[in-house]
Amino acid sequence: MKRDYSLLGEDARRAVQSGLAAAEWYHSDVPRKEMKAFMAREDQPAIRDTIILFGAMATLAALGVALWPSLWSAPFWLAYGVLYGSAMDSRWHECGHGTAFRTAWMNNAVYQIASFCMVRNPVTWRWSHARHHTDTIIVGRDPEIVAMRPPALFRIVLNLFGILDAWNGWARMLLNASGRLDPEEASFIPESEHPKVIRVARIWVAIYAATLAVAVWTGSILPLMLIGLPRLYGAWHHVLTGVLQHAGLADNVVDHRLNSRTVHMNPISRFIYWNMNYHVEHHMFPMVPYHRLPALHDRIKDDLPAPNPSMWHAYREVLPVLRRQLAHEDYFLRRELPATARPYREDFHAAAAGNAA
């Protein structure tokens, strides 16, 4: 069947009627006292990581400026871009949950900076991401589905360079700055929040206008290499990791073990990604801070599908499924559970099993 991913379409209506919208999700059994310890917030890990991140960005930018316009500056700009256009994606995400720091203003400060870098209105995306967690990969309800069916592979490739998502973000910024909201975003943002969306967009337009004015005045794109362009040339890492979160797995189910994927990654990618490679664990218990996710994984791994041992292994699994979905969009990869795991809720998932890989 053809899927309608519009938040105002027929699949959205069916999700509400069938009970898939705002459904009760499966959770691995963790005693309340243990979960309270996992959910405990602290400032130190995030302060350390934030100092490293912004210190590295300042150093790389300074070296890039000092060596500009020589080609010797290119490696420093490329590294700066990954921190700006990819590491900020995970900082936006974790600080949006309010779990990275214990201190609220620290979460909000980093969230605002990361939202600007990723061109995601911090008001809009707070509500968008709340919907993503409430209705994860529910067609017509989740506004953050990356790999739809059939998958738009060319779009994903373009987004490795930020070409669509960033441009859409800037277009949405201009729309909001004009005092309007897109009908879909208006469907999940409370009306009382609309003025905040508009105010943030206008502040951002002023920042970009000042950056462009300096670039024109100096006759150089150097100001844009610091603000704006890194969202394009540094996007590839967050796209590579983000695709693996849910691509090729089941949709319209209420068990994160079916629709989310945990992948073991190298330490550098884990720093950039802030441990979001533990994605089943994050969706199952979204209030657990990023630095406790590895320990949470060890605690509940007997109830979860085996994680992919590397990104390369995960893509070898994902790409054949995406290719097959081009012709058969109902096809998906069903995750195998260990014998120690509690079973799937077959009452919700039996209908989908016939098309599983």
TrEMBL record:
InterPro entries hit by this protein: FA_desaturase_dom, Rhizopine-oxygenase-like
PANTHER family registered for this protein in UniProt: SPHINGOLIPID DELTA 4 DESATURASE/C-4 HYDROXYLASE PROTEIN DES2, SPHINGOLIPID DELTA(4)-DESATURASE DES1
Keyword Translocase listed: no
Domain Fatty acid desaturase: 68-314
Keywords assigned by UniProt, alphabetized: Membrane, Transmembrane, Transmembrane helix
Ranges that cross the membrane: 51-71, 152-170, 203-229
Annotated protein name in UniProt: Fatty acid desaturase family protein
